[in-house]
Write a structure and sequence with these properties.
The structure is a single chain. By secondary structure, the chain is an alpha+beta fold. Helices cover 29% and strands 16% of the residues. A hairpin with a 3-residue loop joins strand 1 and strand 2. Helix 2 packs across helix 3.
């Protein structure tokens, strides 16, 4: 995830905590609030509009040591990246990790994060599911059924 999508300032975190709403599950809590800043204009070299979405990640010492905390943040950041295009613009998010996020398979983290965004009504109505695009469901040619062998009678 690019740096332009991250919450950086303490005052932005404080504003999101103070004025935001939250939804949660056993893996993490999602706090969200409408961004108070003006929408950003895209740079000249990028033709696509820049979504006005910023995300911060909070992992406390209850989750584990520094290695585990950083691993949890990396996994959450990577799970949120494909959802950036699907989220309603103009919001700040904080994702607070819980200890269970370390043991959860990565595919479930992305799926549950998408469910929380849907529950908070923050997904765009025509948003495609990025997990469908990543895992094609076409059968492989090597798994074609084979004809049974006939054994020669003695």
């Amino acid at each position: 995830m690019k740096r332009c999508y991250s919450l950086k300032k303490n005052r932005d975190f404080q504003f999101t905590y103070r004025a935001g709403k939250s939804v949660g599950c056993r893996l993490f809590t999602l706090i969200y609030v409408r961004d108070r800043r003006k929408p950003r204009r895209p740079r000249k070299e990028t033709p696509q509009p820049v979504p006005n979405v910023r995300v911060g990640f909070s992992v406390s010492k209850k989750v584990g040591n520094s290695v585990q905390r950083n691993r949890a943040k990396r996994r959450l950041r990577e799970a949120f990246s494909p959802l950036l295009k699907c989220v309603r613009p103009g919001h700040n998010f904080i994702i607070i990790a819980r200890p269970a996020v370390l043991d959860e398979p990565f595919e479930n983290i992305g799926r549950i994060l998408r469910q929380l965004l849907k529950k908070a009504e923050l997904l765009l109505p025509d948003a495609p599911n990025p997990q469908d695009a990543q895992s094609p469901k076409t059968p492989q040619a090597s798994q074609a059924p084979q004809a049974p062998r006939e054994e020669a009678a003695p």
